Automatic annotation (TrEMBL), chain A:
It is a multi-pass membrane protein. Signal peptide: none annotated. Belongs to the binding-protein-dependent transport system permease family. HisMQ subfamily. This is ABC transporter permease subunit.
Automatic annotation (TrEMBL), chain B:
The complex is composed of two ATP-binding proteins (GltL), two transmembrane proteins (GltJ and GltK) and a solute-binding protein (GltI). Residues 21-209 form the ABC transmembrane type-1 domain. SUPFAM superfamilies: MetI-like. The lineage of its organism: Bacteria, Pseudomonadati, Pseudomonadota, Alphaproteobacteria, Hyphomicrobiales. This is Glutamate/aspartate import permease protein GltK. It comes from Endobacterium cereale. Keywords: Amino-acid transport, Cell membrane, Membrane, Transmembrane, Transmembrane helix, Transport.
Amino acid sequence: MEREELLFLLAGLKWTVALSVVAFICGSIAGLIVALARTSGILIVERLTAGYIAVFQGTPLLMQLFVVYYGLALIGIQMDAWAAVSVGLTLHASAFLGEIWRGSIEAVPRGQTEAAKALSLGYVSRMKDVVLPQAIRISLPATIGFLVQLIKGTSLASIVGFTELTRAGNIISNQIFQPLTVFGVVGALYFLMCCPLTIYGAHLERKFLTASR
Amino acid sequence: MNYTLDFTPVIEGLPNLLWACLGTFTLAICGMLLAIAIGIGGVILRQSPFKPLRWLVIGFVELIRNTPFLVQIFFIYFALPLAGIRLDPTPTAIIALGINGGAYAIEIIRGGVQSISKGQREAGLALGLHEAQVFRLIILKPALRAIYPSLTSQFILLTLTTSIASAISAYELTSVSQRIESDSFRSFEVYFTVTAFYFVISWVMMRVFALFSSRYFSYPVR
């Protein structure tokens, strides 16, 4: 593999990172809303968000990307592949992060909410100042685990036709007929992105386990 | 919005899609069996007193868990022929799914084995059981119960992952739906329907797994 081909892969890597960052940030914002709706105590809202989460957890990410990609075009929103895939990954992330954060909001001891209520804190302040800071701490290992899943998930954007790292690999592999070298390098690049996160997540999990003992 | 939904190609392709579901099941079940075999083998190797062997297993698990399945399946698809093994896309996909699922299974099963306290094993040995018997009778079953929830949700995930096997055109639901889509250009209709299929599949699996669990693992803990 020549220098030029490696540079082409790195250009693809740039898009993989961009896609991951956008999907994670937008997915976090939407996911927070999903988590709050899921724990709102209003039955209909909770049911609806539970359904939303179940749909995303029960179908393949690839299909979600297809449906969003063609669905957006259908309702008259013209988007290029990059934007459509970002929307798809954002929705996917919102459901998974919503479910992770629902779990951690519920894991915060009930007494905390009760104490906040006794101090006559309103819903916003109760969540923002009391419950969420603790919930975020609890959710960190799982959130990082999902981030790794998300980074790996961006590879499916290549099937929809967006040139990120995996698709760049496909293109180069078709040009130079060295699939093992190319996909070896592509795999290594993903590994370099994901492995530090995995190690950090495992470290946090151990830390919390010993702290709670 | 001046697009009218037209599900005719989907309805005409329904028999094909239903057959393709069988293809998805085949991939998922064969992949799962291979994953379990790799999982159990990996855990045994992971506990061997020979250090390089343990590192090999750890390295394998981390490598698989930190790279996308799509890249893995491409790699395997191109690597097998170089190793002199010529296989159709479907068996290749099963191997890839088994390897991917196996890495996750190793971690899950290891957690289960570790959940059994050391005293149990020592008691078994003291009763004159062989190492293998201790593993099968005293460690495996309670461990199976401990890991059942995470293992089954991993299996549902593996079933959903089979859709990625369409990238090497293995015979399963996604690749068949792509064929219908490229014939009819009714992209949204086709993919929407197939997404619903997947949802039903994973929902049924969840129910069946829950049923099994209440049948076989509902004995009291102590």
